[in-house]
Design brief:
The structure is a homodimer of 439-residue chains. Chain A is an alpha/beta fold and 439 residues long. In chain A, 43% of the residues lie in helices and 15% in strands.
Chain lengths: 439, 439
């Protein structure tokens, strides 16, 4: 007899919209290959070159020999064999954080992970100890966070956001409310810089107030920072929460997907919190995360780490230096898209949009709710793809907004995409107006 | 105020021996760097060469161009960008399974994972739907399985084993017993070929009987096969359960760690089971696992996959062909170790050992219980490392046995290691005999 598996007999997260969101969006993109995509948050591809793989592997190999004193047998062991669970480029990541972010961190507090997604997953797994634990997250929230939490049966409670990031009063309310219900808010997840999907950034004053709040409430903050190196103007970037964090309230998630290449699948977590065991022993949260990692993926591929390590070494560990061209493209595209929106939706139109200080994403608010059926219509009838903002709330409440991305497009794509978007919006508005027969 | 984290406030698995086992063993190895290690299950290192990375990347690139018709932009996108969650070498893995194992499988039923460990983790996450679910596992069990299950709050019930693998009568008993308790045994995990740590293999007759039992009981089997390509003799290998599986009862876990290189961190799962959703839709279990994977690590590094793909392409997708030298080393070492044990522990000695038909591991039974304290003494006073078998039971019951590994050693290591092991055993036996004062 054939084993029959019912979806309902598998983990409940598999029926959750959060886990189907990315699949749905990918499928729509595949279904309409000729549509202009203002949906994908993938990095710009124009600068990829195959030969760079060889170059960066060689640079990292030379680093093992020259700087770490490894002989050929040790080099091969480092790159080919099972290895250190916390990674082999941790010292370069620590240097990068110092150079680019002014974050001083013990390399031992870093766990190099399979992309930032695994970093997120490890942190959530460690923190979700029992049924009383809940996670707070600035809403709208990156679906990768929501999906990982669902897989770990870790309830996520949304925290309101404003045009300048997380609403600090609501955060405090949510912490108190959860505790009053007998629950344990384990941490609050947020992206202070050019957030996905909102595009918002927190002010320096708010960052300091947030850290004070975290100290008062004894709350961990999970800071996710994939876009921080891409401000839209020349103005100085703001310090990350981790750079301002004097008392280890911040678990910092890092990604190389947007700064180096997604295909390395290398990210990391800085977890310098002290963990005390019952016997009075003390260690780093990073070491507990490494124990989780050893059962999820063992170590992160040293070959993939070597590629990222090579890029870091080639630029004196500065990703600000390594991403000059990308930063120009993203900033230029962001300005061009915002300008294009203003041209196509003049003042007085009921269409509004955010003007982010950097990153990949602009949120456009429309006079009607934006759901998956509309995305299909937009792709089929107008040839333009975008992301319904409803995907980032996941509570089933209609949302009158969509997300546009500027990261993987040209100016020409933006022109064509916005022209089609304007036609789509006009079409939808007309379709929703009472027809002549009703008047 | 500094956030204080107590280990007891993190996920309970972090205090479980299963998650600390690998760390403990690594730490002992680091503490005694001059000890001969008959503990490590790592593959033989002598054949690693750095330049091979370049060669295999180039071969895979050429495959994308010549066989899949990709232009340079597409090649770069395949290797550098986010990509297919189920992987980019699935077609080569399917061909490999056909060539080496006679397994015919739809490439769409394969998920390429971050090592076999992630494959295991995804399967366990999908199958553990609620508190009634339990997993059965042939005991002694690979600690990576036990640790992953602990992290997912998935209880593991041991199934007895004999010299020829899982005890089929006990397996049926365990299924019935669990069901009688109102529990759902979701699957049974086992390694039919040269198991870690027992070294045992199932007979062909037992494999067929096991598949019949799975059909009668509607039980999934999770077949893990990292060592199958390493028989110790020229005799034909036995078919895997998956090769004999006509009704999709077997979820097959594959590893390239021992056949290609651990540092790629590439493994896979074959999950061709049909999954029905409430709406009457049907899909593959592989697609559900991919949804889990998208929230654990997104996709497996295409750069790392390309290295493995290059090795497969260079050998017409036969890993039997690719591992001729390794197979000779492992078979030779296994014979040499068994012969060495016979020389040092002659008939009449109370020391016994297994004589596996292949793989990496020999289990030695001693006249006294073997615990972690003894491992420390063996390393410190005798200079030899091995693995206490108690680690593979994890129930706290004393075990009079240790595991020796032949995979990462030379004949000279074996000679020195066994000499020291014999001295250790003699020392322990003498230490446990009543002293003259007692007589």
């Amino acid at each position: 007899m054939i084993v029959k598996i019912q979806l309902a007999d598998l983990h409940p997260a598999l029926e959750d919209p959060a886990l189907n969101s990315m699949n749905f969006l990918n499928e729509v993109a595949q279904e309409y290959p000729d549509a202009v995509s203002l949906a994908a948050g993938r990095p710009y591809e124009e600068f990829f070159e195959f030969s760079a793989l060889h170059r960066y592997l060689d640079i990292f190999r030379q680093h093992l020999v020259d700087d770490l004193g490894q002989d050929p047998v040790q080099v091969n062991r480092t790159l080919f064999q099972y290895g250190r669970t916390k990674g082999i480029v941790h010292h370069l990541v620590a240097r990068n954080l110092e150079v680019d972010e002014g974050i001083a961190v013990d390399p031992e507090a870093i766990v190099v992970t399979v992309g930032c997604q695994e970093a997120m997953f490890l942190v959530l797994r460690a923190l979700r100890a029992g049924p009383r634990d809940v996670l707070l997250a600035a809403a709208p929230t990156y679906v990768g966070l929501t999906g990982a939490a669902r897989l770990l049966d870790f309830p996520v409670r949304p925290v309101a956001t404003t045009d300048s990031g997380v609403d600090l009063a609501d955060l405090r309310d949510q912490v108190h409310r959860a505790r009053a219900e007998g629950l344990r808010p384990r941490a609050c997840y947020l992206m202070p810089d050019f957030a996905n999907p909102s595009g918002t950034s927190m002010s320096l004053a708010d960052r300091r107030t947030l850290l004070d709040l975290a100290a008062e409430e004894e709350l961990l903050l999970i800071e996710d920072n994939p876009y921080g190196l891409f401000p839209a103007t020349e103005s100085r970037r703001l310090p990350t929460l981790k750079a301002l964090d004097t008392n280890s309230h911040v678990v910092y998630l890092g990604s190389f997907a947007k700064t180096v290449l997604p295909g390395a699948r290398v990210g990391y977590v800085v977890a310098d919190q002290s963990v005390a065991d019952a016997g009075g022993g003390r260690g780093l949260l990073a070491d507990q995360l490494a124990k989780v990692k050893s059962m999820v993926s063992v170590n992160t591929s040293p070959v993939a780490q070597a590629v990222v390590g090579g890029v870091l070494l080639a630029h004196d560990c500065s990703l600000v230096a390594a991403t000059v061209r990308q930063r120009t493209v993203y900033a230029d595209n962001l300005r061009y898209l915002v300008h294009g929106l203003a041209r196509r939706f003049p003042a007085g139109s009921s269409v509004r949009w955010t003007v982010p200080a950097g990153g990949f994403f602009v949120v456009v608010t429309l006079p009607f709710p934006v759901d998956d059926a509309l995305l299909h219509r937009s792709a089929r009838e107008y040839g333009v793809l975008w992301t319904p903002m409803a995907h980032f709330y996941g509570d089933g409440v209609p949302v009158h907004a969509l997300r546009l991305s500027v990261s993987a497009v040209t100016r020409d794509d933006i022109d064509r995409g916005l022209g089609r978007l304007a036609a789509f919006v006009a079409g939808e508005v007309a379709r929703r107006e009472p027809g002549p027969g009703v008047r």
